[in-house]
Each structure stands twice: as structure tokens, then as C-alpha cells.
Design brief:
Blueprint: H1 2-10, E1 15-20, H2 26-39, E2 44-49, H3 69-78, E3 83-85, H4 89-92, H5 114-118, H6 122-137, E4 141-145, H7 149-161, E5 167-171, H8 198-212, H9 218-230, E6 235-243, E7 259-266, E8 269-276
Parallel strand pairs: 1-2, 1-4, 2-3, 4-5
Antiparallel strand pairs: 6-7, 7-8
Helix pairs in contact: 6-7, 8-9
The protein binds pantoate (PAF).
């Protein structure tokens, strides 16, 4: 991958990169289209497909994570992707089995709250793999989905702090007809659970409406979200937070442009969503 990337750069081509864990859906394809724009005429779009073990806690769904490589490659080809990068565990974590993999990349501020508080080792895994993928693919730009808002900000901060010469682009969340954010994890939901996944987007809508009516106190809005989520059988609120979209600092009073994020378990499936208020 590095040899290829160097040769594309020597030929003066721009590389735009979409890192994924596979099981691609329309949301990923919209990132590919954004990458195509960023790569410019004749430029190269690279998609990586790699289910990264270090961003899963031992209690999480690594072995169950949905995979369908033939379908992913078909979708990549259809979307005009120039190269799919499919690294192996051995190439991403060399020496892991003998205890000789011991270098990680840690972003130590934006990673702490929300997803980081619920999943303490998650972002260390994300920043480590994204840094490694960047070093392999050597992109000029990399496209991330807004659904994982915190992840995108953590990666952006890592890129600034570590002087990666890469533009981080955040593309809008794609949604199903009922408003549920597209996610590979939606696949885990049973037919009874799937309609309950609207709890997240309904909570976002409810808060947007409340803010428009002048309800701006975060504790009050949180209580409303708690009540909303509790109405869906088998749905449990993990967290809801109101925050500044760049610093990710929680706010007690919601303003124009403040962001809201929440995580909800529907049965055994943990879903996240976020949006600007
Ligand atoms: O968002 C994802 O799919 C993953 O966290 C990423 C960025 C591909 C790193 O494994």
C-alpha cells in the first residue's frame, strides 16, 4: 500500500481515503462520493476495510461484527473506488501475539467523555489504527461520517497534534426513511427491535423542538430524553450529552450550534446518534 501510494504521489495524483470496518451501506458510499470530489480529476479513492480489534473492549461484539467482503468489494467497484486496502491483523498489529506490539496513539482530552467514558479503551484503538492506516495510505484527505461525531473530532485533533499532512472531512449522516441513522450495527436489531431504534432520532427532534421553544437548560433536556427513551420497550439510555461541537465540552445551557449526542441500547445492540441543535 505504501509503495502504491508513493507512486501515485510521484505521478501527481491526489489520494482521498475512506477508512471503514466494512459491511458497507449507503452511508459509507456517500463518504466515497465525497472522497471522489476531494480526489479531484484523475485522483485516487482508497477505501480500507478492516475490523480493528483494539477499538473493541473484551466484552464487546468483535467476533459478531458483521462482515461480507465479496459484497463490500462489489459495492466499492460500483461506487468507482480505485483501491480497496484490506490489511491483515498480522500487518496492523505485528508482534501482538508475542507481546511485541506496544506502541499506541492516544488523544487525551476529546476522547474522555461520552463514547470514551462508556468505552474506555475505544478511542485509543481508533486513533492507533487510523494513524497506522494514514501512514499506509498516505492520503491528502480522509473522509469520516458525522454519525461518529466524537470520533471525527478526535481524529481531527490527532491530525493537528501529530502534523499529519491530511485534510479531515466530515460528511453528513445518512438516514433511513424513518430517520434512523445508517449503521452496520443496525443489522443486529431483530424485526421487533428495529422500529424502536427511532428512539434516538426522536430524542434529537424532541430536543430541537424544545430548544426552539426556549427550553435551553441541559439537565431539563436530559430528563426529557430519558423519559422519551424509556417509552420504547427494551431501550436503555446509556448517555445523552449537550456540548460544543469542536471542543466537545459539555454545556449546561444549550445555544444555537450546540450539539447533542446520545447512546441507547436497544436490546443487546448499542446505537449512537448526534446532531446540531
Ligand atoms: O468508524 C469506523 O468505522 C472505525 O472506527 C474506523 C474509523 C474505520 C477505524 O477503525
Amino acid at each position: 500500500m505504501q509503495r502504491r501510494a508513493r507512486s501515485w504521489h510521484r505521478d501527481g495524483l491526489r489520494i482521498a481515503f475512506v477508512p471503514t470496518m466494512g459491511y458497507l451501506h449507503e452511508g459509507h458510499i456517500s463518504l466515497v462520493h465525497e472522497a471522489r470530489k476531494r480526489a479531484g480529476p484523475g485522483g485516487i479513492v482508497v477505501v480500507s476495510i478492516y475490523v480493528n480489534p483494539t477499538q473493541f473492549a473484551p466484552t464487546e461484539d468483535l467476533s459478531l461484527y458483521p462482515r461480507d467482503l465479496p459484497r463490500d468489494l462489489f459495492l466499492c467497484r460500483e461506487a468507482g473506488v480505485d483501491a480497496a486496502f484490506l490489511p491483515s491483523d498480522a500487518s496492523m498489529y505485528p508482534g501482538e501475539e508475542t507481546g511485541q506490539f506496544s506502541t499506541y496513539v492516544v488523544e487525551d482530552r476529546l476522547s474522555r467523555g461520552m463514547e470514551g467514558a462508556s468505552r474506555p479503551t475505544h478511542f485509543r484503538g481508533v486513533t492507533t489504527i487510523v494513524a497506522k492506516l494514514f501512514l499506509c495510505v498516505q492520503p491528502d484527505s480522509a473522509v469520516f461520517g458525522a454519525k461518529d461525531w466524537q470520533q471525527a473530532q478526535v481524529v481531527r485533533r490527532m491530525v493537528q497534534n501529530l502534523n499529519f499532512p491530511i485534510q479531515v472531512v466530515v460528511a453528513p449522516t445518512r438516514r433511513d426513511v424513518d430517520g434512523v441513522a445508517l449503521s452496520s450495527r443496525n443489522k443486529y436489531l431483530s424485526p421487533e427491535e428495529r422500529p424502536r431504534a427511532v428512539a434516538l432520532v426522536r430524542s434529537l427532534d424532541l430536543c430541537r423542538k424544545a430548544v426552539r421553544r426556549g427550553v435551553v437548560a441541559a439537565p431539563l433536556l436530559k430528563a426529557r430524553v430519558r423519559k422519551e427513551v424509556s417509552q420504547y420497550p427494551s431501550a436503555r439510555l446509556d448517555y445523552v450529552e449537550f456540548f460544543d461541537p469542536e471542543s466537545l465540552k459539555p454545556v449546561r445551557t444549550v445555544r444555537r450550534g450546540s450539539h447533542m449526542a446520545l447512546a441507547v441500547r436497544v436490546g443487546a445492540t448499542r446505537l449512537i446518534d448526534n446532531g446540531r441543535l
